[in-house]
Amino acid sequence: MKDIYAVLDIGSATVKLLVGEVVSANINILFSKKMTSHGIRKGKIESMPTVVSEIKTLLDEASAALGATITKVALCIPSFHAHIYQSDGITKVNSPSDQITSDDVVRALKLSRRFERDDNEEVISVIPTLYQLDTKVMREIPIGQKSASLKAESLVITTKKKLLYSYISAVEKAGVEVLDITINAYACAKEAFDAVYLQEGAILIDIGYKTSTVAFFEGGYLKYIAQAGVGGYDLTKKIATSWQIPMDRAEVYKVKYGTCDYHIGDEDIIHTTRNQDKETHYTQRDLAEVLSEGVKDIMEVIKTKIDIINDGRSYETVIVGGGGELPDIEKVSSVVLESAVRTYRPDTIGARDMSFVSCLGMMYYLNDRSRILGKMDPSLILPDISSTMSIRFKGLTKSKPIHSDKKNKSRFSKVIENFFSEED
């Protein structure tokens, strides 16, 4: 049975679905598509029927393209209301020979979620960062090692219960189970950063539609996360205001001609306004000037979030997210943030789009989980055909009310309930 997983990323601007086959450390993309989101604002579901319909549309198209029904999805949810904690859990190793098993690791991780937090918070991710055995410390999963006790230091991510349960409800109303969950910021980091950066220090800037997430990683932990109320929408609005044109026209110009490079398109007229007998022509260079000013404004706001963790050191800084799809945005950002900034675009065939970074990272996240929990059930089982290449080709070319906390908590998939429920 192949390790094929479907990842669903539900955001305020777009809903993304990616189906991939995990082969060693690589991902073969079998299907990927995104569509505009209409039912979510600032990380909250405002129209459940709309969100459910959009999820079903993507799932149905993927199932039709792949010739198999998707039954489970891993879920990336917005980082908007996330909180992060460092915790640890200590357990006695149950094996008579003191040999650590996956059960011991899971038990230690479950115990690490026992700490005081607000009643309206729910744990969505418990991520091990360090293991302490009797005689040594390890970052790798210590299954098979000998020790009388095991301490697991963990990154624990929570979000608001009502928000989490609404996302789970939307997915299950669309007819599929939730396989696992994490937030966009952590999933993006799994794809965009090498492990060494997550240890030494790295900053992730995820530019969304109306909000952007700033996340700081160090020592394997997600140590800081903040939201900035700026995003790609502000760039569109900047064009519309400067040129006195409708927002939809401004968005078209941004997507089709947008760049922060002042040295191109000086003679390329892309828009003309007429006021009585006067005509005003706007070139691609004019657009670049407007967008560069817009990016400066966005990065000034983001800089106020980064300054909170600024200790004088220079960190690897990466821009991801659909709002970052603008040539040379990293150059303007580097000037404002006073540090080297790069954009990250996946090079995985079938997902070479900055908005798919979180989906790809979630695939690696699932791979890490399977090393602890054991082999997970796949999201779908492909029909018996000669090779996955034909399916991959087919998939890539296919054109086409919130309940109470108690009731919703029972809606967790078996894997999530097993992993995150506390020890008796």
Automatic annotation (TrEMBL):
SMART domains the UniProt entry points to: FtsA
Pfam families referenced in this protein's UniProt entry, alphabetically: FtsA, SHS2_FTSA
Record InterPro entries: ATPase_NBD, Cell_div_FtsA, FtsA/MreB, SHS2_FtsA
Gene3D superfamilies per UniProt: 3.30.420.40
Superkingdom of origin: Bacteria
Domain SHS2: 5-192
Gene Ontology biological process terms from the UniProt entry: cell division
Keywords of this entry: Cell cycle, Cell division, Cell membrane, Membrane
Functional note: Cell division protein that is involved in the assembly of the Z ring. May serve as a membrane anchor for the Z ring.
Matching PANTHER family: CELL DIVISION PROTEIN FTSA (PTHR32432:SF4), CELL DIVISION PROTEIN FTSA-RELATED (PTHR32432)
Quaternary structure note: Interacts with FtsZ.
Similarity field: Belongs to the FtsA/MreB family.
Full protein name: Cell division protein FtsA
Lineage summary: Bacteria, Bacillati, Bacillota, Erysipelotrichia, Erysipelotrichales
